[in-house]
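Now read these lines:
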Amino acid sequence: MSARRTQAGCSLALLLAMAVAAGAATDKPAAETHYTLEDFPQVEKIDAHVHVHGVADRFMAQAIADNFRILTIDVDYPDYPPIAEQLRDAISLRQRYPGRVAFATTFSAADFGSPGWSNRVIQGIDADVAHGAAGVKIWKNIGMTLRDADGHYVMPDDARIEPVIAHLESHHIVLLGHQAEPLNCWLPLEKMTVRGDRDYFREHPQYYMYQHPDMPSHDSILAARDRMLKAHPALRFDSVHLASLEWDVDKVAAFLNHFPHARVDVAARLVHLEYQATTNPDKVRRFLIRYQDRILYGSDDAYGPVDSDPAAVKDVHDGWLQDWRFLVTSDPMHSEDFAASFHGLQLPREVIDKIYRHNAEILFPKAWDKKSQAATASVADAAPQWETLPPTPTLPEGGHGGYAPVNGIKIWYASYGRGQPVILLHGGLANSSYWGNQVRALAPHYRVIVMDSRGHGRSTRDERPFGYELMAADVLALMDYLKIPEAAVVGWSDGAILGLHIAIHHPERLTKLFAFAANSDPSGVKDVSQSPTFNAYIARAEMEYEKLSSTPTQYASFLEQISKMWATQPHFTADQLRRISVPIWIVDGDHDEAIKRENTEFMAAQIPEAGLLLQPQVSHFSFIQDPTQFDNDVLHFLANVKGH
């Protein structure tokens, strides 16, 4: 699924009424100041309406670059992954990007009307809130497609849904309501105002109400929604998609006036404001200023579960930037959705801040708060620690290093601290930044050297094919360059294999080896193609490669060459392992998704006096999943295992 937008001379009495209307604000604040297009990456923003599935590391990298936090919303929508999968992905994303991601859950209408349905829904909602859900989505299937056992369409104010709504109201849980569709849904294609609606309803005829005159009308669905709100006046309600009144801002204003606790977002409906701005921009601008405290920015971008298409991420960025241009600048603009041109609204800076951030923070308090996320992390069993991929650490400031000319290439390295040398060797596709936590733990006690392997990170490569013998030679050459005769090595995955190669062929250069997640033979590697965590790592590695490498467009070739090495190397024999004299711990996570346990145990059994350590509750990425545990194990090894 690629990223896309899914839709698309007054009397005194009147003046007084306008002044006291809920949400009223001054239309023309004095001394307006404005943001510019160039301010876009600097201003903190929240997209309070996205649908993100899968690992989405590429998406989150773009969100962070564009200074967005997000609210990803689960939906009972057959085009999306199953609800349980959406929930799992949302919890994982929130854990991996604390302070950046919040999520809203939803409920299934699959067994609506069965005994105990509302109780089961309430129990599910409470469980999801305990896992960190900031709200609950009720989708358009209620009112448009869902029928009960008697064949009657189920409306939002149905008595069988009432207990759920009452529960949300009494527990102050936000309900995000998508009822009905744009009014275009009830019009013939040629009379629709924007192309996006024409495309959507052409592709989704089951929701194209014009073709189903027997189905509920636009007015009847919204009337049922309004009856639900009237019956629950304290309900915290986010009426998404401009409350399905997008064709006329006066209609949205009337809705907000009638329901003072309601909010609206502009997700997938900003194009309708642009369309109205072609003929009456001042009216649109006045609406946004007057209700500046009750409007949230949202895009309705849908992303994933595939996270490997740069064009999908570019679509997200371009959409965000286009929306910013419309709301912030007075630029002349054109939309692909209709022919007429229009200008940006150039809203005041304080209005932009409310629409883009403050209103979401008020409606969803603590949703993006790191402390609140930490408090719910313990119950987030849908994403155990070993299935997470925490953000890549950063290396600390103060390192000394640069590029070392070795073996016909340039190896990037950095050195921290003083004392006995310890070299940290990263895994395949990665870079030295993955060791950021360990550098901070070890540097007070040792001289810690990190290096980017050839072709990885900032280091260059030549035409020679990747191989562990060649890469081990790079390590030795860097040691020569730094005048280090011998050192301890802590290696992860490919880095651990390099350490084993040196232990077998150049034992005089090693004092000891902490080998984490190595394999002695390609047969010791699992099929990682179905591992969401490992696939997220590969996607993240691509983004990091593009950022750090001197050949940023060649990741596909780089991945192909590394994969070929993984498929054919190494081949450490039992005899070679038995001849190792360097003190070694063979270490792995007890949930490693890449290395077979039997291969780990085989190596430890063959190497004389080798230690075997299985770190609990972690995987191939233990050093970022539980850095405290990993650091303590390494420190214990370095301090207590006698060197060679």
About this structure: The chain is about 40% helix and 15% strand. The CA atoms of residues 472 and 502 lie 7 Å apart. The chain has two domains: 34-376, 400-640. Confidence is low (pLDDT under 50) at residues 1-29, 378-382.
